[in-house]
């Protein structure tokens, strides 16, 4: 079996969860299926940055830069079918929601979420318009679709009208494993001027659907003498300026620390000193960040929306992300109850251990086999569009 990996979308440092998915899944695939030949089709940005698509598998650098989304779409829809055929792939796995709608090979597409439909303000302009066309087309014309959670599968069935029997639910592993020692606490506290304050950590991109405005409102409800320092690491976005203004208006600017990109040792240090972790997102295709905190033994309070409770199980305090009072109450419960923190720390480690990239890879290989065994996959012809209901 010769599998092509469609990584044309991947601009390192800019593609979030789908980048982590590629970085973790590719090495796992080579470990669990050494008999399969993999060829990664990458853009110039990915080639320049390096990654497992350079070191672990054969790679083909395509003459395009995907930061220009028009080039990305042209490369995926027009160039990739020809290049895949030229290199003799039997199956093309597109790892991030979109993929070629034609080609003389079987097709598998991983759908991470339908954020562009369910939270449309998260994608706007040309990108939003493109997603509304490209994601349904890829899902409907693939021989198999991988959904990273049951919640995403249900969204694909209900919103894109793909038959459920063509969808395989394959959860992801833990997003970013601890690959480096945590920065010593004294050094960390000095670097970020934390003093001796209690730390509440929330790692997420600063985008509207992450619901950080309500998190700030919930933080303001905690009495000042009990209020921890809320630390928000993550790449800066235009939304961050709104959040900074809101913190000032709420009178909690000195209780919120906005951090940008962190070195691995710094992030591990924050996990190590955090009293608890909170995740308020309104919509996720999986909930990788929750698993990352659980794997490190940090007690978690998180949203009960979309796929997040599916990932958290009974190892976290769940709250309604639309309720500022519930968010605040969950945080305060963790802060004041050491027994609860200890119980959730243990439960979280056990829950996180149930997820692994090897398991994800094995499920993915089974999907490849199903795709190639299907009549369309065996014939290597385009799949017909699934009629809408």
Termini separation: 35 Å
Give the tally of structural domains. 2
* Strand order in the largest sheet: 3-2-1-4-5-6-7
Instruction: Summarize the amount of helix as a percent range.
Output: 40-55%
Write the CATH architecture name of the largest domain: 3-Layer(aba) Sandwich
> What do we call the CATH homologous superfamily of the largest domain?
Glycogen Phosphorylase B
What characteristic shape results from the CA principal axes?
A: elongated
CATH class placement of the largest domain: Alpha Beta
Give the SSE string.
EHEHHEHEEHHEHEHEHEHEHEHEHEHHHH
The largest pleated sheet is described as: 7 strands, parallel
What does the radius of gyration come to? Answer: 21 Å
Mean pLDDT, all residues = 92
Task: List how many beta strands DSSP finds.
Answer: 13
Percentage beta strand: 5-15%
Low-confidence stretches: 381-389
Could you name the CATH topology of the largest domain?
Answer: Rossmann fold
Helical segment tally?
17
Structural class: alpha/beta
Topology readout:
Blueprint: E1 2-7, H1 16-32, E2 37-42, H2 44-49, H3 52-55, E3 58-61, H4 69-86, E4 91-94, E5 106-111, H5 115-118, H6 125-141, E6 144-147, H7 150-160, E7 167-169, H8 185-191, E8 199-201, H9 212-221, E9 229-232, H10 238-250, E10 256-258, H11 264-273, E11 274-279, H12 288-295, E12 300-303, H13 308-312, E13 317-319, H14 324-336, H15 338-352, H16 357-373, H17 375-379
Parallel strand pairs: 1-2, 1-4, 2-3, 4-5, 5-6, 6-7, 8-9, 8-11, 9-10, 11-12, 12-13
Helix pairs in contact: 1-16, 9-10, 9-14, 12-15
């Amino acid at each position: 079996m010769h599998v092509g990996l469609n990584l044309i979308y991947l601009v390192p440092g800019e593609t979030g969860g789908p980048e982590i998915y590629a970085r973790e899944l590719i090495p796992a695939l080579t470990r669990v299926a050494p008999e399969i030949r993999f060829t990664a089709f990458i853009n110039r940005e990915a080639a320049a940055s390096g990654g497992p698509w350079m070191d672990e598998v054969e790679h083909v650098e395509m003459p395009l830069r995907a930061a220009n989304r028009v080039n990305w779409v042209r490369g995926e829809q027009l160039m990739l079918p020809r290049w895949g055929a030229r290199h003799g792939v039997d199956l093309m796995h597109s790892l991030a929601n979109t993929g070629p709608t034609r080609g003389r090979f079987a097709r598998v597409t991983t759908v991470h979420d339908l954020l562009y439909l369910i939270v449309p303000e998260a994608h706007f302009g040309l990108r939003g318009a493109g997603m509304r066309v490209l994601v349904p087309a890829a899902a409907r014309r693939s021989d198999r679709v991988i959904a990273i959670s049951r919640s995403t599968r249900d969204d694909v069935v209900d919103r894109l009208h793909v038959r459920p029997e063509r969808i395989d639910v394959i959860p992801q592993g833990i997003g970013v494993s601890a690959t480096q020692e945590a920065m010593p606490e004294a050094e960390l506290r000095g670097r970020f001027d934390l003093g001796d304050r209690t730390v509440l950590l929330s790692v997420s991109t600063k985008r509207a659907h992450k619901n950080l405005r309500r998190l700030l409102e919930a933080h303001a409800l905690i009495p000042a003498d009990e209020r921890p320092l809320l630390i928000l690491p993550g790449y800066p976005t235009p939304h961050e300026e709104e959040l900074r203004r809101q913190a000032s208006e709420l009178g909690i600017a000195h209780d919120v620390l906005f951090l940008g990109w962190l070195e691995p040792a710094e992030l591990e240090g924050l996990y190590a000193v955090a009293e608890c972790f909170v995740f308020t997102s309104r919509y996720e295709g999986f909930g990788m960040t929750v698993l990352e905190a659980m794997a490190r033994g940090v007690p978690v309070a998180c949203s009960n929306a979309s796929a997040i409770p599916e990932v958290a199980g009974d190892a976290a305090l769940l709250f309604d992300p639309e309720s500022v009072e519930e968010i605040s109450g969950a945080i305060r419960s963790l802060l004041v109850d050491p027994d609860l923190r200890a119980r959730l720390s243990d439960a979280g480690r056990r829950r996180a251990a149930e997820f692994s990239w090897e398991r994800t890879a094995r499920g993915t290989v089974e999907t490849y086999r199903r795709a190639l065994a299907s009549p369309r996959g065996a014939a290597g012809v385009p799949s017909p569009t699934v009629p809408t209901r």
